[in-house]
Amino acid sequence: MIRVLSLLVAGLLLDACNQAPAVVQPIQFSHKAHVDKGLPCDGCHQSVEKAAFAGMPSTETCMMCHQSAITDNPEEEKVRQYAEKSMQIPWQRIYEVPGHVYFSHRRHVTLGRIDCVRCHGDVGASAAPLTVAALPISMDRCMDCHAQHGAASDCDACHR
Prior knowledge:
Radius of gyration: 18 Å
Strand content: under 5%
Structural class: mainly alpha
Shape: elongated
Order of helices and strands: HHHHHHHH
Helix content: 40-55%
Largest sheet: none
Number of strands: 0
Number of helices: 8
């Protein structure tokens, strides 16, 4: 009973906060430019179908296309500078669930066939890097989606 009450209070507090503070991304990345070229989400977020965490693009992934200049945008050169220094680009996460919540991208994307936009919004239309979540992650949104898809809604399915 105490555990259920604690989880309920935590969920209400998280929903009240609704958004994490804005972050600064290391490169002025345009999702739109990449989507317009036909690159799918999993082209950069390569573990989305295999793991709990979708993954942030590695410098090596970016370098598969950006070995040399594709555009005249100076932000593109930053990718090569990270590669020359053998450094990973320090992308800042903007979507993150609390530590007591278990979320698996593999379960939702591969098994549930849920499109990225359902949870993340139309990130592909963004010409500037995201600094806050396009759609806030909340227990209410998750529960509504689970109800619509007939997915488990018992606490232990997602809460650890």
